[in-house]
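Run log // design_07
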């Protein structure tokens, strides 16, 4: 165990993909973690229960089934637990699903986050970190995407809710002095991931000998970020508590900071990968070529994401090291083991 101060930390969305990996790393450092999750059926809940089954082996971990949209549950939890750090990863994820079921995003990502902010207001914490998304960059053409860029042109409701989270966090930072850090994640992937993500569904389809759907005829790029690199970035920011920038001036100071104790960071690989290289990495790891069916771009999607991580590198010396080939290989090995696949 590293020589670190032991903290009491709440991780919402603790049974989710990032929540699971982050919690496991924090537990190994000796922190006391309470994880909450509503265990919804957006994707197979068994994955969530299997993640939790690995976390409850730690003595310094407690899991509670609960929903951040339940204000009374959340306030009671905060009142009784004395959290020092809160990491809000609970959200309704998925760009495409936000077109089919928009109200789920308002409930979880807006109303639920409001409850988290109110809980932090009434039971103050040292630091609130929360998941934002690279989706906030929307229709931006300038790359790499920088936290100094305007993000007022979302192309999905999911992106709009994440931008709203940043605005809400800033307001509470200003009004109540809550130090908040927004984390704009760029296409996180890895073992125990989300089945709705392309790398997961592509892998499943190739093993099941079904064709994969390739959108925009493969002419897309993503700044795929391996889960271990993301976890390293989050943990590095725990004690990077934002402070107010005296005499902050938007004409000369970074808009990722503020006169409030507020900060935004990109957490990405800083190395976009073409969709076809990404598919090739999956094919190579499986040892079989995919049958591909090409489609036009889907509503709400974007052609390219590319993270500028200069501020994160300056703050915590963040340097992602995992190539797409290495990361996909680790995922495919996990997938074969988890689903007991013997593929020749």
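design_07 sequence
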């Amino acid at each position: 165990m590293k020589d670190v101060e032991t903290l009491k930390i709440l991780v919402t969305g603790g049974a989710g993909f990032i929540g699971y990996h982050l919690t496991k790393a924090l537990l190994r450092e000796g922190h006391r973690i309470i994880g909450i999750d509503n265990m919804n059926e957006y994707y197979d809940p068994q994955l969530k229960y299997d993640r939790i089954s690995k976390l409850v082996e730690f003595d310094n971990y407690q899991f509670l089934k609960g929903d951040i949209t339940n204000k009374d549950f959340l306030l009671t939890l905060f009142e009784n637990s004395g959290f020092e750090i809160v990491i809000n990863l609970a959200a309704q994820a998925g760009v495409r699903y936000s077109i089919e079921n928009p109200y789920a995003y308002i409930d979880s990502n807006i109303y639920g986050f409001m409850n988290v902010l109110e809980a932090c207001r009434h039971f103050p914490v040292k630091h609130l970190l929360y998941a934002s998304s690279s989706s906030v960059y929307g229709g931006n053409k300038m790359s790499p995407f920088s936290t100094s860029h305007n993000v007022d042109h979302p192309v999905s409701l999911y992106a709009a809710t994440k931008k709203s989270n940043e605005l809400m966090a800033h307001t509470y930072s200003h009004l109540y002095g809550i130090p908040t850090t927004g984390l704009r994640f760029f296409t996180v992937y890895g073992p125990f991931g989300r089945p709705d993500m392309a790398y997961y569904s592509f892998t499943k389809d190739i093993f099941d000998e079904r064709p994969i759907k390739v959108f925009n005829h493969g002419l897309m790029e993503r700044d795929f970020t391996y889960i271990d690199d993301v976890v390293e970035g989050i943990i590095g920011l725990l004690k990077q508590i934002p402070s107010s920038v005296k005499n902050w001036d938007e004409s000369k100071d970074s808009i990722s900071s503020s006169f409030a104790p507020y900060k935004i960071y990109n957490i990405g690989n800083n190395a976009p990968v073409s969709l076809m290289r990404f598919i090739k990495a999956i094919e190579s790891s499986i040892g079989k070529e995919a049958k591909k069916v090409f489609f036009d771009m889907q509503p709400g999607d974007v052609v390219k994401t590319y993270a500028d991580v200069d501020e994160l590198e300056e703050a915590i010396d963040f340097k992602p090291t995992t190539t797409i080939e290495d990361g996909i290989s680790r995922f495919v090995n996990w997938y074969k083991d988890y689903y007991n696949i013997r593929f020749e």
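The first strand starts at residue 8 and ends at 12.
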